[in-house]
Amino acid sequence: MEILHVSFECYPVAKVGGLADVVGALPRYQQQLGHIAKVVMPMHRTKFLYEHEWEVVHKGSFKMGKRAIDFTIIKETNNSLGFDLYCVDIYGLLDREKVYNYDDDTDRFLAFQISVTEWLAQWHHHPDVIHVHDHHTALIPFMLQHCFGYCHLAQIPTILTIHNGEYQGWMSWQRGGEIPAWDTWNWGLLDWDDTINSLASGIKCAYRVNTVSSNYMTELMESSKGLQHLFQMEAAKCSGILNGIDYEVWNPETDTLILDNYSIKDVNQGKNLNKKKLCDDYGFETTKPLFIFIGRLVGEKAADLLAPAVSEALNLPNADFNFLVLGSGEKSTEAALDQLKDAHVGFCNAQFGYNEKLSHQMYAGADFILMPSRVEPCGLNQMYAMRYGTIPVVRKTGGLADTVIDYEDENGYGITFLQASVNDIAQAIHRSIILYRNKSKFLELRKLIMKLDWSWEKSAIKYIELYTK
Ligand code: ADP
Questions:
Q1: How many CB atoms lie within 10 A of CB 71?
Q2: Which of 95, 233, 323, 452 has a 20 to 30 Å separation from 239 between CA atoms?
């Protein structure tokens, strides 16, 4: 089967979050299963672009409203990711260093989708499946089926994977004319609540829709920023497939970004050495349990609750722990974490910005990872953490509920709590400290979580089954 993935991110080319990790790994596993998987993404100006060789495979142009746009498709010549990687370049739109957060993001998403569709229209053959990821690419199923210029592509099956339903790609109807000439009888396939809603359109038009965990699909059917009724109506084609993690990139035995490699056999020694480095770097004591948080400092991740919850936990009797944050996001949250760090020198520290190397060192050196998320479609951090023997302390939501069982429940191995509230987080930290002091149980769980299988193999097969349907 030949699969074309269309995505705005792909690790290691350009990464903001979990979307990149999935699109960087799933195609490789699909190739290993004997399929042909290709990825097309924007040509963001990242290090990867300059460090690899490229060839031009297509040049084209189109009109987006009144604007004439030229685009170029380049292909990475050495196949260094294990699958064919194509990038779309558009001068003045896709030639940026950051992936998102520009005023003209809507233009960028639309121009990227039109370029990909225009390019596909020139192929001599058709892929068997087009797999689009998140709202940035979710208009493609509509365009293939209802834009006059692409009718010969209408029979190609499309899959939409929703990595995050919080962002839906809303566009005012004034922009309807920027989508390549389409059959206006079908305006309802673009519309939701009187705006063009890219994600809603993808849900309506894609052959199949999936989220990155089963529980997240159930949650979206209950509440999804206004799309819940749509998910309920389209339930027959909706499902959840849990993300896997890339066992080659995330492997404590071979990870070149951590100080000391280790396996399940020498995990205690390995983690101690990695922990010592973090403690030395951030002014902590190695005897205390070390909690980490890694991620976007945004409301979805409940990052605003970290500072007050950690502060409350530090005030609980017998609470003696270290806390290290790595992330960037809302300025008010960064300021609160800065204050926390100043108020608790030797206990709390924070590193703002994106740092892949430090993230690996933190997964390797920490005792616990804290994930109090309000919304977590799958969550990869808890799986990376477990692979590195770091116990997850998570709110029971989305994919976190599908991957972490509380250690006091049958077959459990992590710590879970119900509410994204200061009190629940502080209590969960407190329970974790009690577990940490119960050395035999703590070390037993550490080994148990390292044995759990989060590899892509199972999930990659589930995607092939979905395509086959
Ligand atoms: P989301 O996609 O919602 O941000 P996920 O848990 O699915 O969350 O994926 C997060 C990924 O991004 C993980 O690989 C995590 O290690 C990484 N990550 C997030 N923030 C940072 C950061 N500041 N530095 C390094 N890696 C980060």
A1: 23
A2: 452
Please list, in sequence order, all residues whose beta carbon lies within 8 angstroms of the beta carbon of residue 157, skipping any fewer than 6 positions away. 128, 129, 130, 207, 208, 467
Question: In testing the pocket of ligand 1, which one of 11, 380, 403 has its CB within 8 Å of the most ligand atoms?
Answer: 380
Pocket perturbation via mutation, ligand 1, pick of 134, 381, 384, 386 by most ligand atoms within 8 A of CB? 381
Pairing type for strands 191-192 and 195-197 reads antiparallel
How do the domains of the chain map onto residue ranges? 2-244+457-468, 267-453
Hey, what CATH class is 2-244+457-468 in?
Answer: alpha beta
What is the CA(149)–ligand 1 centre distance, in A?
A: 38
- Per run of 10 residues, the mean pLDDT along the chain (length 469 residues) is 98 95 96 97 97 98 97 97 98 97 98 98 97 98 98 97 97 97 97 98 98 98 97 98 94 98 98 98 97 97 98 92 97 98 97 96 98 97 98 98 98 98 98 98 98 94 97
**How far apart are the CA of 318 and the centre of ligand 1, in A?**
32
- Cα of 432 vs centre of ligand 1, distance in Å, is 23
Do the domains 267-453 and 2-244+457-468 match in fold? yes
Residue 12, ligand 1, Cβ within 6 A: no
Residue 359 Cβ inside 6 Å of ligand 1? The answer reads yes
Place of tokens 């108020």: 343
Specify the CATH superfamily of domain 267-453: Glycogen Phosphorylase B; (3.40.50.2000)
- Name the 3-class secondary structure at 425: helix
- Strands (DSSP E) contained in 77-128 are 84-89
Q: Can you give the pTM of this predicted structure?
A: 0.93
d(CA 391, CA 398): 18
Determine the pLDDT at residue 429: 98
From the alpha carbon of 363, which atom of ligand 1 is closest?
Answer: 16
CA angle at residue 350 from 349 to 353, to 5 degrees?
Answer: 160
4-23 burial, b at 16+ Cβ within 10 Å, e below that, comes to bbbbbbbbbbbbebbbbbbb
Q: How far apart are CA 447 and CA 445, in angstroms?
A: 5
**23, 354, 454, best to mutate for ligand 1 pocket (most atoms within 8 Å of CB):** 354
| Residue 310, strand partner residues | none
In the reported structure, the alpha carbon of residue 330 is separated from the centroid of ligand 1 by a whole-number distance in angstroms of 15
The phi and psi torsions of 288 (rounded to 5 degrees) equal -85, 150
Strand ranges in 275-347 using DSSP code E only, listed in sequence order: 290-297, 322-329
Given the structure tokens 């960037």, which residue do they identify?
328
Q: Indicate if ligand 1 lies below 6 Å from the C-beta of 333.
A: no
